[in-house]
């Protein structure tokens, strides 16, 4: 027997001091008040009777003293937390990984898989031995320890109550590495995985996870397989008609049975399309909706069974998307006259175009302040504008890039097709009579979007200070570019690139990823309104708000200190607000068939053993129970006049 709490010397000192105090209280005698009485024979008779019972009274007082000393001894002994040495050596150290991924929201078991998993862990907590220690961690896109390593059942149950399901996939390798690091240099370490088993291989960028000497146990949760989910969903506006848009989505039947479903597409809460589909087992069915109109804010896709029932996983039956804002951009055109340029800009009703001559630009619009974009047509001001700028055939020292020798018949031999200003354009066969070579500033981060002969850039994009620029190294009137569809597309793409509409064009993030959302201010923090109305403060790094998203739905980001909790997020409600959507869209997570066994590092996880509900090996608990019983005994004997 050893003491896990206070040492023997400390316990002896406490008992000695407290015991002396108890004995002192018992040896104290009450000072009786002297009272004069008129007749003494009666009192002499009473005192005679008292002398006959003095020995019995002393015995009763001694019994009461012994009961109090015994009670004190039990309490002091409990402070020492006495335990058998063998019990301490055999205590286990457990890390319990509770799967909180999207598939754990499946309702094939009541009420859902996560609640059943938590009940399994709660049974383990209540069956811990006196020397056992446990740490509970939530496993989703991250691994989150919910409390310290502890043997306190109440503390562990409070930690377990914090486990909440997310709309993301579980990062199993990261969770295993956390568990193995926690159990490093620990004897009798054990990793317990509570999950439906849809975790994928225990492999990441660092290679396979090795368990070492740690024991691996697995608690399988779930029984059902029936599920149909939305596994792809995206939307974009048409560049030349932003009142219209197109939607692409994919529906997957991950279950073993044929499913008849009803697919609804909603725009701003109103039904845009309703389709009934039949999916065979394992079938992936893409759907494309071209040339849609009527929605200006939100798009949603919903799944439901034709017979009115629901499949086993509701988390993937709903997908969200946000259309980019149809905001009017103010464009200032500085030109002596260019019909091709004017006509192309008129194609977009969301452009507010103002045309001025070079002289009026200097006299009335110096610096381009108040405009989103300035287009310089064969004009290059000496001072850079205070706005984003498109230079068509720039010249002179005011050009953002150096202009060198004239090129004869240049063309786009090499194009950076990933750059947003050339998206949906075909520039390979554009004929140009003459142009000039542009020299980008590599140190400033300029990018060559198009070049002639691989060595002569003729289309360059970059930034100077807080403003972006695009420079085209030839006069469009010296080419057949204005006669092609690529010309208005190039102009509109460039305006979108300047106004950051391209960054919000496909406005759907994937849950489980770290999101980096552009913000329009220099704030170091932002407020993020989550689906459901809650808000969180998120950091802003290099002009982007950084957040690990684990919930599907609509979000609204407010840069700076202005909080926002809208009932429904608006696409863009101000210069410092950005709305976006997030979705699960994961076919593997939608495959909810439970896995009966778990294999990691070549080892098959065993069953959970060694938990006996209701049995605890802490002796101090029984000492406290004995103290309570002894107190009750002393109370009963006192009131029956046995110990007084």
TrEMBL record:
Transmembrane segments: 6-28, 62-80, 619-638
InterPro entries to which the protein is assigned, alphabetical: Aerotolerance_reg_N, VWF_A, vWFA_dom_sf
Domain of life: Bacteria
Domain VWFA: 93-306
UniProt keyword terms in alphabetical order: Membrane, Transmembrane, Transmembrane helix
Pfam families xref list: BatA, VWA_2
Organism for this UniProt entry: Pendulispora rubella
Protein's UniProt name: VWA domain-containing protein
């Amino acid at each position: 027997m050893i003491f896990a709490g206070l040492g023997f010397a400390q316990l002896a000192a406490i008992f000695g001091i407290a015991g002396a105090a108890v004995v002192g209280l018992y040896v104290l005698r009450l000072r009786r008040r002297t009272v004069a009485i008129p007749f003494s024979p009666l009192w002499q008779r009473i005192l005679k009777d008292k002398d006959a019972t003095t020995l019995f009274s002393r015995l009763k007082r001694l019994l009461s003293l012994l009961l109090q000393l015994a009670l004190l001894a039990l309490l002091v002994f409990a402070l020492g937390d006495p335990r058998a040495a063998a019990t301490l050596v055999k205590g286990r150290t457990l890390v319990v990984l509770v799967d909180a991924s999207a598939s754990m929201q499946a309702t094939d078991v009541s009420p859902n898989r996560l609640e059943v998993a938590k009940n399994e862990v709660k049974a383990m907590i209540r069956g811990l031995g006196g020397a056992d220690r446990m740490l509970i961690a939530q496993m989703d896109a991250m691994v989150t320890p919910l409390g310290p390593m502890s043997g306190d059942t109440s503390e562990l149950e409070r930690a377990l109550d914090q486990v909440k399901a997310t709309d993301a996939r579980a990062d199993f390798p990261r969770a295993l590495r956390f568990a193995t690091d926690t159990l490093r240099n620990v004897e009798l370490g054990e990793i317990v995985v509570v999950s439906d088993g849809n975790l994928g291989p225990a492999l990441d960028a660092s290679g396979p996870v090795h368990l070492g000497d740690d024991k691996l146990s697995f608690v399988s949760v779930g029984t059902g397989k029936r599920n149909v989910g939305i596994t792809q969903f995206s939307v974009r506006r048409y560049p030349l008609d932003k009142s219209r848009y197109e939607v692409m989505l994919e529906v997957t039947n991950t279950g073993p049975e044929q499913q008849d479903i009803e697919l609804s597409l909603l725009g701003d809460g109103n039904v845009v399309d309703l389709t009934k589909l039949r999916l065979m087992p394992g079938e992936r069915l893409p759907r494309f909706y071209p040339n849609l109109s009527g929605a200006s804010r939100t798009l949603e896709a919903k799944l439901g069974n034709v017979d009115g029932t629901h499949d086993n996983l509701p988390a993937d039956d709903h997908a969200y998307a946000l259309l980019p804002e149809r905001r009017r951009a103010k464009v200032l055109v500085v030109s002596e006259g260019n019909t091709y340029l004017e006509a192309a800009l008129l194609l977009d009703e969301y452009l507010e175009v103002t045309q001025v001559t070079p002289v009026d630009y200097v006299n009335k619009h110096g610096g381009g302040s108040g405009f989103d974009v300035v287009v310089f047509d064969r004009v290059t001001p000496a001072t850079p504008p205070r706005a984003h700028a498109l230079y068509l055939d720039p010249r002179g020292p005011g050009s953002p890039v150096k202009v060198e020798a004239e090129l004869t018949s240049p063309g786009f031999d090499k194009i950076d097709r990933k750059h947003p200003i050339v998206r949906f354009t075909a520039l390979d066969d554009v004929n140009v009579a003459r142009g000039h070579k542009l020299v980008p500033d590599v140190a400033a981060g300029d990018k060559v979007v198009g070049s002639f002969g691989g060595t002569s850039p003729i289309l360059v994009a970059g930034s100077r200070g807080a403003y972006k620029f695009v420079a085209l190294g030839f006069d469009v009137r010296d080419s057949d570019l204005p006669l092609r569809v690529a010309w208005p597309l190039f102009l509109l793409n460039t305006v979108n690139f300047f106004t950051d509409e391209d960054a919000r064009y496909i406005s759907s993030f994937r849950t489980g990823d770290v999101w980096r959302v552009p913000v329009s201010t220099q704030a170091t923090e932002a407020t993020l309104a989550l689906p459901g109305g809650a808000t969180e403060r998120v950091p802003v790094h290099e002009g982007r708000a950084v957040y690990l998203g684990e919930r599907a739905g609509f979000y609204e980001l407010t840069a700076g200190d202005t909080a926002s909790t809208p009932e429904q997020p608006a696409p863009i409600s101000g210069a410092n607000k950005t709305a976006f959507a997030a979705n699960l869209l994961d076919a593997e997570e939608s495959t909810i068939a439970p896995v009966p066994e778990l294999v990691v590092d070549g080892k098959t996880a065993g069953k959970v053993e060694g938990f006996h509900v209701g049995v605890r090996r802490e002796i101090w608990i029984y000492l406290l129970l004995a103290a309570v019983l002894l107190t009750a005994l002393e109370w009963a004997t006192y009131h029956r006049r046995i110990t007084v």
